[in-house]
Amino acid sequence: MSDSDKVFNVLFLCTGNSARSIIAESVLNRVGVGRFKAFSAGSFPSGEVHPFTLELLKKLNYKTDDLRSKSWDEFAGDGAPEMDFVFTVCDKAAGEVCPIWPGQPMTAHWPFPDPAECEGTDVEKRLIFAETYGMIERRLDIFVNLPMASLDRLSLKKRLDEIGQDNKAPAE
Question: What are the pLDDT digits (tens) for 13-49?
């Protein structure tokens, strides 16, 4: 199987696995269908997906039935899918000692503000969730359009790091 036929497994990590990583999993499974299979997990999972995460994703016609907050340990043990990419989406998870991932996936840090920690009215909170969704979607649009087959590992790592540089995400 060539890289152009390969389905790449991608794991998004956060501390609580209730908002950002869940959103990233959902978006990549939609925009990367057939080329990418996304998963998400947390170092200290909250045990539930944030209600505003579910509300937003449902409003945007995402399937949410199978979404759940889970530990990253599920992806480090025997029988776990082998990851090609692992992205941390919060600064706390990026600073933690991660498990050893089978297959030596490529890693990058793509920080996003945590909408689950925002304060204000429900309207203001929903706006922050929507803004975070937009940032995640922009980065993943760039990611799925990378020429995977024509980039060597070092060039690909450089591009992944560039995507995570700021919340606007670099232009092509």
Answer: 999 999 999 999 999 999 998 899 999 999 999 999 9
DSSP state of 99: P
**Does the residue 3 lie in any domain?**
no
Please state the domain count of the chain.
Answer: 1
Q: In what order do the strands lie in the sheet with 106-109?
A: 36-42, 8-14, 85-88, 106-109
Residue 41 lies in a domain: yes
Return the DSSP state at 39: E
Find the CATH number of the domain harbouring 31. Answer: 3.40.50.2300
Instruction: Answer yes or no: is pLDDT of 91 > 80.
Output: no
Q: What gap in Å lies between CA 133 and CA 57, rounded to an integer?
A: 9
Q: Does residue 169 fall inside a structural domain?
A: no
> Is 131 in contact with 125 (CB distance < 8 Å)?
no
Q: Do 70 and 93 touch, CB atoms closer than 8 A?
A: no
Rounded to 5 degrees, what angle do the CA atoms 129, 132, 134 make? 110
Count the neighbouring beta carbons within 10 Å of the beta carbon of residue 122.
Answer: 9
Name every residue whose Cβ is closer than 8 Å to that of residue 121 and which is 6 or more positions away in sequence.
none
